[in-house]
C-alpha cells in the first residue's frame, strides 16, 4: 500500500500532465490558425499609461505621418570645441564632451562667453533642407549641457548672454516656416547646468526640494517654448532615462496634458514619460505612450512586425555616433546612397527618416553634410513621389529593395537597390489584384511590356519584371495595380491555399 502523501503527489503529477496536454492540444492549433495572433497582453489598470490605443487620426498627425524625410539639427556650445579641447581629441559624441573624462567642466561652462556664430544664416540652413527634400526639422533648443539657444527667462545660461545675443531659435523657426518646413523642438530633460537636476533618485530633504525646483523649471521652459514659438508642431524629448525623471510619473503625465492643452494637435513621441511601473515608450500593457514610437535611434526595424502597427521615426547620424559638430570624423561615414536606402526602408515600414546635421561653432554646415544633402536632394527631386505621402505597401518584401505605397493615390513604388544577376525583379501582388501599368518614375515613357509581364505570372501571384540595364542609382518603378478582380477569382485564389 502506498502512503497517502505519495498518492497525492501522483495525482498532482497527473493533473499537471493533463493541463499541459490540454494546453498543447487546444492552444497550439488555435495559434496555428491565427499565425499573426499575439498572446494576450496583460491588462493592468494604469493611471499613467497610454492614453490612446491605436494611431492618432487627426490632420496634424496625418501630416506628420506623410513627411517621409526630416532633418535633425544638433547645435549648441559643444560645436565650439568640436570634439577637441586643449589639443586633446575626444572620441565620444561631441555634444557630450562636457562629461568626458579629462574635459575641464569649468572651461565648458564658460564657452557661452564665446558663442558668436558669425556665419550663422538660418535662411541658408532652411534652403538647404528644402533642397534636400526635408518636410520637417527637429532643432535642439537645449541639449544635456543646459545651454538654451532661445532667451529663456528661467535661466541665465542662454544665448541672450552670449556675444551673439540674438534669439537663434526664432531665426531658425522663421526661416524654416518660410520654406514650408514644419518645426519640432528638441528638448533635453537632462540639464547639467541646473542645480536641482540629478540623475539618481533624490534622497535627502534638500535633494528633494531642489529636484522639485528643477521640475518647475522644466515645466516653465516647455510652456515658454510653446508660447514663444507658436508655429512649432511638436516636442521631441530626450534625456528621459534617468531614475529621478522616471519616478515623476504623475508630474510628467499632467505636464504632458498641460502642454497638449496649450497647443492642440501637438505631437509628442514616446520618450517623454514613464508609467507608474517605470516602463518607458510602451506601458506595462505594451501600449505605446505618446503619438509615435521614438526608439529608433541610429537603427531601423527589419520587418513590419517590429513596429507593431505604430507610427515611428528613425533619427540617423551621418558618421557613426556624432550628433553635434565634431571636427574629426573617424570610422565609417555613410554615403548618400546608404542614407537614401535607409529612408526608403523607413517609409516602406511606415516610418519617417530624419537625418542629422551638426553645424560648427560659426554656424556653418560642414562640407560633407552639404554634399550629402545635395545628393539626397537630387534624388528626391525626381523620386519624391515614392517617399512623400507613402507608407507600408502590404506586399511581400523583396531582396532587390523596398516597396512603398501612396496613401493618396494607391500607386506602388518599387525602389530598386540591388538588381539580381538575372535582371529580374520578382513582385508578388495581393491576391485578386493584378498589374495595370508599370513604368519608370523618372522616365514615364519607359513602360514595361504588360503582355510579357503577364506571361511571367506564377500561381502564387508573382510577376517578373526584366530590367535590361543595371541602374546606376536607386531606381523607382511605378506599379499601378488593377482593382481587386472579381470575387469569384479571389475565392478561387484562396481555395488553392
Ligand atoms: O544623448 C543624446 C545624444 O547626444 C543625441 O542627442 C541623441 C539624438 O537622438 N539622443 C541622445 C541619446 O539617445
Give the key terms.
single chain; 497 residues; alpha/beta; TIM Barrel; Immunoglobulin-like; 8-stranded parallel β-sheet; 5-stranded antiparallel β-sheet; 12 helices; disordered N terminus; binds ligand FHN
Characterization of the model:
With 497 residues, the protein is an alpha/beta fold. The protein has two domains: 59-388, Alpha-Beta Barrel (TIM Barrel), CATH 3.20.20.80; 393-482, Golgi alpha-mannosidase II (Immunoglobulin-like), CATH 2.60.40.1180. It has helices at 4-33, 59-65, 105-109, 122-132, 168-178, 205-228, 243-246, 249-262, 336-348, 367-383, 450-455, 487-495, and strands spanning 69-73, 84-85, 88-89, 136-142, 182-188, 234-238, 267-268, 293-297, 312-316, 351-357, 390-392, 401-406, 412-416, 424-428, 435-440, 462-466, 475-481. It has an eight-stranded parallel β-sheet with strand order 7-6-5-4-1-10-9-8, sandwiched between helices. A five-stranded antiparallel β-sheet has the order 11-12-13-17-15. The chain has a two-stranded antiparallel sheet with strand order 2-3. The longest helix has 30 residues, at 4-33. Residues 74, 93, 95-96, 238, 297, 315, 323 line the site of ligand FHN.
Mean pLDDT: 90
Q: The CATH topology of the largest domain, please? A: TIM Barrel
> Mind summarizing the main beta sheet?
8 strands, parallel
Which kinds of small molecule does this entry bind, naming each only once?
A: ligand FHN
The backbone outline, from C-alpha atoms, is globular
Task: Please state the second-level CATH architecture of the largest domain.
Answer: Alpha-Beta Barrel
- Structural class of the secondary structure composition? alpha/beta
Number of domains: 2
Q: Report the total helices.
A: 12
Proportion in helices: 25-40%
Rg of Cα set: 27 Å
CATH class category of the largest domain: Alpha Beta
Q: What's the total count of β strands?
A: 17
Strand order of the largest sheet: 7-6-5-4-1-10-9-8
Separation of the first and last Cα atoms? 58 Å
Detail the poorly predicted runs. Answer: 1-8, 17-40, 485-497
Give me the CATH superfamily of the largest domain: Glycosidases
Tell me the β content.
Answer: 15-25%
SSE string: HHEEEHHEHEHEHHEEEHEHEEEEEHEEH
Amino acid at each position: 500500500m502506498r502512503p497517502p502523501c505519495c498518492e497525492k503527489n501522483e495525482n498532482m503529477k497527473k493533473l499537471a500532465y493533463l493541463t499541459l496536454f490540454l494546453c498543447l492540444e487546444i492552444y497550439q492549433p488555435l495559434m496555428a490558425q491565427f499565425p499573426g495572433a499575439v498572446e494576450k497582453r496583460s491588462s493592468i489598470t494604469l493611471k499613467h499609461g497610454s492614453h490612446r490605443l491605436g494611431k492618432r487620426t487627426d490632420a496634424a498627425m496625418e501630416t506628420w505621418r506623410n513627411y517621409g524625410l526630416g532633418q535633425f539639427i544638433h547645435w549648441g556650445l559643444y560645436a565650439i570645441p568640436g570634439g577637441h579641447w586643449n589639443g586633446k581629441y575626444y572620441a565620444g559624441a561631441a555634444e557630450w564632451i562636457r562629461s568626458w573624462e579629462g574635459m575641464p567642466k569649468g572651461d565648458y561652462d564658460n564657452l557661452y562667453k564665446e558663442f558668436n556664430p558669425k556665419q550663422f544664416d538660418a535662411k541658408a540652413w532652411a534652403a538647404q533642407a528644402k533642397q534636400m527634400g526635408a518636410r520637417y526639422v527637429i532643432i535642439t533648443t537645449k541639449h544635456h549641457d543646459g545651454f538654451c539657444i532661445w532667451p529663456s527667462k528661467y535661466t541665465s545660461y542662454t544665448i541672450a548672454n552670449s556675444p551673439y545675443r540674438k534669439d537663434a531659435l526664432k531665426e531658425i523657426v522663421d526661416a524654416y516656416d518660410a520654406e514650408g518646413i514644419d518645426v519640432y523642438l528638441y528638448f533635453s530633460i537632462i540639464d547639467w547646468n541646473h542645480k536641482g537636476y540629478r540623475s539618481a533618485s533624490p534622497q535627502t530633504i534638500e535633494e528633494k526640494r531642489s529636484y522639485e525646483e528643477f521640475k518647475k523649471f522644466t515645466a516653465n521652459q516647455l510652456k515658454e517654448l510653446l508660447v514663444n514659438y507658436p508655429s512649432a508642431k511638436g516636442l521631441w524629448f530626450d534625456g528621459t532615462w534617468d531614475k529621478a525623471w522616471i519616478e515623476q510619473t504623475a508630474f510628467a503625465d499632467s505636464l504632458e496634458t498641460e502642454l497638449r492643452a496649450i497647443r492642440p494637435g501637438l505631437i509628442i513621441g514616446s520618450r517623454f514619460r514613464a508609467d507608474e511601473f517605470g516602463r518607458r515608450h510602451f506601458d506595462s500593457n505594451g501600449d505605446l505612450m505618446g503619438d509615435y514610437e521614438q526608439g529608433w535611434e541610429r537603427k531601423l526595424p527589419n520587418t513590419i512586425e517590429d513596429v507593431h502597427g505604430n507610427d515611428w521615426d528613425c533619427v540617423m547620424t551621418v558618421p557613426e555616433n556624432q550628433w553635434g559638430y565634431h571636427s574629426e570624423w573617424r570610422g565609417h561615414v555613410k554615403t548618400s546612397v546608404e542614407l537614401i536606402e535607409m529612408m526608403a526602408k523607413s517609409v516602406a515600414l511606415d516610418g519617417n527618416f530624419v537625418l542629422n546635421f551638426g553645424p560648427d561653432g560659426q554656424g556653418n554646415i560642414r562640407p560633407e553634410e552639404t554634399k550629402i544633402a545635395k545628393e539626397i536632394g537630387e534624388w528626391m527631386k525626381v523620386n519624391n513621389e515614392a517617399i512623400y505621402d507613402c507608407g507600408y505597401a502590404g506586399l511581400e518584401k523583396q531582396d532587390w529593395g523596398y516597396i512603398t505605397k501612396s496613401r493618396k493615390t494607391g500607386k506602388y513604388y518599387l525602389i530598386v537597390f540591388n538588381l539580381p544577376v538575372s535582371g529580374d525583379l520578382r513582385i508578388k501582388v495581393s491576391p485578386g489584384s493584378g498589374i495595370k501599368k508599370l513604368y519608370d518614375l523618372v522616365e514615364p515613357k519607359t513602360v514595361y511590356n504588360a503582355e510579357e509581364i503577364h506571361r511571367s505570372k506564377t500561381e502564387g501571384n508573382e510577376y517578373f519584371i526584366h530590367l535590361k540595364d543595371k541602374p546606376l542609382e536607386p531606381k523607382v518603378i511605378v506599379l499601378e495595380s488593377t482593382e481587386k478582380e472579381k470575387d469569384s477569382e479571389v475565392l478561387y485564389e484562396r481555395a488553392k491555399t
